[in-house]
Structures are given as structure tokens and as C-alpha cells.
Design brief:
The structure is a single chain. The chain is built from 13 helices and no strands. Helix 3 crosses helix 9 and helix 3 crosses helix 13. It is globular, with a radius of gyration of 22 Å.
């Protein structure tokens, strides 16, 4: 069975995914794979576009390089080249190397902010936010704000990112299958589901905590900083 979206659905839809399938099934499989590629392209375009804007703002704030079409094109080219090299080098070489180094960068950055930032406030915020998250989980899942004065907040944020992440669902499922090969279900669930979720709780608590502490106790008005830099530069200004 080939590692494709149509291949993963052959048991549910009862059709063959190999080269010997009938013509009508071959067309149906092609439609499924085409829709998957279209969804992934949209997700990558959204994430890449936002990343280009943020990196362009970072270059402007740090080096004084004004964002332009040429600057954005060079940034996009660098990202595409790095992605292509890591992908073609294989799962256990380029992708594993980049993932390992990114993980350590995230951990070191988070620990640094935690130790040298408002540590006590971050732990207090983590405790209350975790309880509030589970207490309001169902309400947050169904929050659509169908009111005239809502300014489409959930549509522009919650639903936008939900659709963006969902577009990667099919290919991420296949990628997780490759990662889980040779491992038990317990190992797969702990390493690929539970530990990343727990890390995300700490990550958002640390960086959300330092921003809230600066806003509430240090007199730093992030809205005034956000206005000239735009949303894409807000995170960089906070750091």
C-alpha cells in the first residue's frame, strides 16, 4: 500500500490504492490526492506568508532593512531551499536534525525567559490558566460570537488558524504513521501527543506571562507598540 492519502483510505472506502486498481478507482484516488495537495498548498501559503511578514519586520527592526518585494522574495527563497534540502535528505537526517536543534532552541529560550523574567507570576498564571482552560474547554470550542459588536474576532483568529492547521491534517497523519513505525501505541501517544501538549502549556504560559506582566505591572503599553509595527512585529517587539 503506497503512503498516500488515498492509500490510507482504501480500507474505509473499500478500493485498491495500488497501480492495479480499476480505472474508476484510479480517478477517484487521483481526486483525493489532488484535493489533499490543494489543501496543503493553502496551509503552507498562509503560514509562509505570515512568516515572511514577521521576518521582514524583524529585519527592519534589527538591521534597518526596509521590507520590499525583493527582501520578501529572498526570505522565501531561503526558506524553500532549507525546506527542500531537509526533505530530500530523509527523515532520519535533515528532518530529524532540524527538529532536534529547533527543540533545543525552544527549550533554552523558554528556560531563559522563565528564570530571568517574572518567574513567580508565570507560575501563578500557569496554574490559573490551566484550570481555566479545562473549565471553559467546551465553551471555547463552540465560541463564534454571533453579535453585531463582536468585530468577527473568532472568525479572524480562532477559525482562521483552525482551518489553517486542519489543512495539514491529512499529510501530518501520514507523517505520524512514519514516526510511529516500530513503536508501541503507548510510546506513540506519550511522545507525539501528550508531551507536545504539555510543552505547549508551559510555552504559552511563559511568553504570555512575560507579556501580561509587562502590561499590568511594568507600564508597558503593547498596543502602542503594536500599532506602528503591526501584528507581524508584535512578538519581536515583546522580546
Amino acid at each position: 500500500m503506497p503512503i498516500t492519502i488515498c492509500g490510507s483510505l482504501q480500507c474505509q472506502l473499500r478500493f485498491r490504492a495500488d497501480a492495479g486498481r480499476p480505472g474508476d478507482q484510479r480517478k477517484f484516488a487521483g481526486i483525493i490526492d489532488t484535493l489533499t495537495v490543494f489543501a496543503i498548498t493553502g496551509g503552507v501559503a498562509g503560514s509562509l506568508g505570515y512568516g515572511l511578514l514577521q521576518l521582514g519586520s524583524g529585519l527592519n527592526m534589527v538591521f534597518g532593512i526596509s521590507p520590499s518585494a525583493i527582501v520578501y522574495s529572498l526570505i522565501a527563497l531561503s526558506i524553500v531551499v532549507g525546506y527542500t534540502i531537509s526533505s530530500t535528505s530523509g527523515l532520519k537526517r535533515g528532518i530529524a536534525w532540524l527538529s532536534d536543534k529547533n527543540t533545543w532552541i525552544f527549550i533554552v529560550l523558554m528556560v531563559f525567559v522563565l528564570l530571568f523574567g517574572p518567574t513567580a507570576y508565570i507560575f501563578n498564571l500557569f496554574t490559573q490558566s490551566t484550570g481555566s482552560y479545562f473549565a471553559n474547554f467546551l465553551e471555547g470550542m463552540t465560541f463564534t460570537a454571533p453579535f453585531p459588536d463582536s468585530e468577527l474576532w473568532p472568525q479572524w483568529w480562532d477559525m482562521y488558524w483552525w482551518v489553517d492547521w486542519l489543512s495539514f491534517g491529512p499529510i501530518v497523519g501520514l507523517f505520524c504513521v512514519r514516526l510511529g513505525y516500530g513503536r508501541t501505541i503507548r510510546q506513540f501517544v506519550i511522545v507525539n501527543w501528550l508531551l507536545p501538549a504539555v510543552f505547549a502549556f508551559f510555552w504559552f504560559s511563559v511568553f504570555g506571562g512575560i507579556v501580561l506582566h509587562a502590561q499590568l505591572f511594568e507600564g508597558i503599553r503593547h498596543f502602542q507598540r503594536l500599532s506602528p509595527a503591526g501584528r507581524r512585529g508584535a512578538d519581536l517587539l515583546r522580546l
